[in-house]
User: Fold Iron-sulfur cluster co-chaperone protein HscB from Lates calcarifer.
Amino acid sequence: MLSLNSLRTVCLSRAALHPNRLMTNQMPLSRAVTCSAHCMSTSLLNKDAWHSNMNIRALEKERWLTYYTNQANLPRNYCTGQVKLNCWNCKQPLDKMPAFFCMSCKVIQPPEEGITYFKIMDCDCTFTLDTQKLQKRYLELQRSLHPDNFSQKSVKEQEYSESQSALVNKAYKTLLKPLSRGLYMLELQGMHIEEGTDSGADSAFLMELMEINEALDEAQTPEKANEIGQDTKGKLADLTVQIDAALRKGELQTAKALLAQMKYYANIEEKVKEKLSGFM
Assistant:
C-alpha cells in the first residue's frame, strides 16, 4: 500500500513527464490525490521507500529531458536510427556524400551540415594536397552549381545553388594556399591562432622580421624587392615541409607555432607584391 507522500511523489513524477496536463487539469489531479489518499492505509513511509521514489522521479525527469533534447538537436533531413540523408524533393535516400544532386530526381540539394572542405573538394585531408586536382574539382563543381544554371528553377533551388556555390568557393580558397589550409586543419582539431598575438614568437625571430620589413620599405628598385620576395618564398617553402611533417606526426602544437611563423612571412610576401606593383 502506498502512503499519501508516496502517491504525491508518483503524481509529481508523472506531472514532470506531462507538464501541460498538470496545467490544464489541476483540480481533477488534486481530487484524485485526495480521494486515493483516503482509500489507502495511513501507514508511515520509511526512509528507504522515500529515497526509492525520489530516485524514480529523478530518473523519469532525466529521461524526459534527454529525449526532448535529442529530438531538438536532430540534424535536418535525418531520421532517428539512420545516418543517410534523404532528398528534400522526392524523399529518396541520397547515395553519396556530399550529395550536390539527387540521383533519382536530379534536383540540387542543400549544403550538408558539418561537412569538411576536404570532403566537399574530394581531397585527402593532408597538408600537401594535390592543388591541380583541387582546381579541377572546383571548376567541375562550379560548372554544375553556378546560380546562372538555376535562373528558371524554383526559388528553393535557386537558394540552394547560391549556398552550394558559395560554400565551394570558400572551400576552394581555404584549401588552395598552405597557410589557410593549415589553419583550417588546426580548426578541425579545435585549435586556433589568434590575430595580432606575438606571445609565441621569440625575440630573434621578431628582430629578423623587423629587418626584412625595413629592407622592403627601403627598397628603391624592383630587383631589390624581388630579391626579398624570393628569399621569403624560400622560407615559406621550408616552413611548408616542417608543418607537413608536424601534422603527419600529430604534433599539433609544433604545427601551430610553425603556422604562426608562416603568417608573418605570408604578410611579407603580400607586401612584396604591393611593392612590385608600385614600380609598374
Notes: The chain has a mean pLDDT of 78. The radius of gyration is 31 Å. Residues 222-249 form the longest helix (28 residues). The CA atoms of residues 88 and 109 lie 7 Å apart.
